[in-house]
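thread: overnight batch results

M.L. [08:02]
morning all. the overnight job finished for the chain we discussed friday. pasting input first so we're all looking at the same thing
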Amino acid sequence: MKIERITAYVLRIPLRMPFRISAGEITAKDGVIFACESADGLVGWGEAAVDAVPFYAHETVGSVLDLAKNALAPIMKSRDWASAAELTDAFDHYRGNNFAKAGLELAFWDLLGKQRGQSCAAMLGGVRGEVETGPSIGIKKTPAETVAVVGEHLALGRRRIKLKVSPGKDTQYIRAVREAYPDVTLMVDANNAYSEQDFAVIASWDAFNLQMIEQPLHEFDIYFHSLLKQRVKTPICLDESIHTEHDLRCAIALRAADIINIKVCRVGGLHKARRLHDICQEYGLANWIGSRVGMGVAVASRLAAASLPNCTLPTDAGLCSMYMSDDIVAPLPVLQQGCMVAVPNKPGLGVDILPDKLAKYTARKVVL
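M.L. [08:03]
and the structure it wrote out:
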């Protein structure tokens, strides 16, 4: 596959409502969409699912554009690529910046699928035509408001609920939801908010019969997660801690986690997501595909990854529409009722860019 032209679109789409996690709050979705055109005239699309500031990721819209222009796009256009694995190996000449790498790598997968007439899910080795998804509920002002939002989702047929938590907005909120809905599958996500000083608080959540506690400690604290795991009965899930295969192997060696959340954007794209999935499967470690507020291009890639055989727990993907006021793709991979969402099965990522929406939300266009 020879890439002739690469264009970056900086987008900003307002959210329906603010989304708050322990790191802060966003009211609009910023991101970068790459259009990569091959020598035979096909166009592949990929999303760098970052924000304007380092809200969740270390990277930002600005850093993605800088790296794409000065490092990654020149590599991508330099020669004919035989596979995504070959391309990602070349990208790894430069350190880190997995979100930027993922955006371009996803465009390559989209092109490859369109060229072969295969969906990304099929090329990855996916085994499911639909996957279960559940909402990620941002931190609300009160426990009562949280209970009300959970009730709305349960009424729509959702079965797994994830609550974002942070110090001071945790135990009371979890208790309120559990008392209101004693049988719902419930998990919590702290996004790095706690430290080794908070082990007793985290251990007290064993009383709430949680499916998992996701990323309670700082992302660099794989070792301290291993100590926490000895103190709690609830399964520990690592998310932000797992950027690379090395991170995952360290977590396995230290017995720091029961479950792994693989985010396609955070690990550098679909090829590396599949590699991490395969390692989890090899070691008998449960994994699932995480999501974050984003546009339909990124959602489609997450659903493709979620179709892999070891992804045995519900994903967050497919429910970005609860926060996004609009999108740039069709068909939008969402569900209206229930908890199942179809994995796109058209060639490539399986979604088409809507030119009018792309133009409406583009703040800046850069030819790389």
